[in-house]
Each structure stands twice: as C-alpha cells, then as structure tokens.
Specification:
alpha+beta, Alpha-Beta Plaits, four-stranded antiparallel sheet, two-stranded antiparallel ribbon, 6 strands, elongated
C-alpha cells in the first residue's frame, strides 16, 4: 500500500456550482498517473465509499491525461451556503483522500 499523499503533487476540493463538489488529484509524475489510471485505482465506487455517499451521487470520474490528473464530481450533501453547511467553498472536502492508501507494489515503483 502507498499513501495517496506520496503519489500526488496536489489533492484539493472545490465547488462545482452550488450543488456539486469536485475533487482533483494531480500526480507527481506521468508514470505514477499512468499506473493509477491503468489499474483504475481511483474510481466512482472508491469515491462513494470514502465520502459515504451512494455511488449514483458520484456524477463523474475522469482521468485527464494532459494534466496527469484525476477528477471526481459528486453531489453535495447540502447546497453551498445552505443553513447547516460548513464549507461554503468546498475547499476542505478533500480530507478523506489524505488518509487513503492505494494498492502499490514497490517493483519498478516510480513513486519511490
């Protein structure tokens, strides 16, 4: 297992409008990105599990080759600015990813 924080240069979240949240993961190298993409280590089922939401609330996942990045968009539990909502900008919602470890073998490891 390898912590995602060791594989990524950037892990962030932000609003994608008032009703959706987007997470972005930009990898440290093309090799790491290609391995994560090839093995589909990040996917809608994983995002749903991490964020404790139904998988159908994960509206899309994308591997974005030009930036060596992964993006997932999901429904917000509460709209941005709604009473009781605690992160109006969605900028603190990447926390579950900071403790995520991905299956990773050290053989030929571009992340070491």
């Amino acid at each position: 297992m390898k912590p995602l924080v060791d594989l990524a240069l950037v892990i962030r979240s932000k609003n994608a409008g008032p009703f959706e949240l987007t997470i972005d993961i930009i990898f440290k190298s093309r090799e790491i990105y290609e391995r994560v993409k090839k093995e589909q280590l990040l996917n809608a089922a994983l995002i749903a599990r991490l964020y404790r939401i139904p998988e159908e609330d994960v509206l899309g996942v994308t591997y974005f080759d030009p930036a060596a990045a992964f993006k997932a968009t999901m429904k917000r539990r509460l709209p941005s600015g709604n009473p009781g909502e605690k992160d109006i900008y969605g900028a603190q919602q990447h926390a579950p990813l900071l403790e995520l470890a991905l299956p990773w073998s050290d053989a030929g490891d571009p992340a070491s």
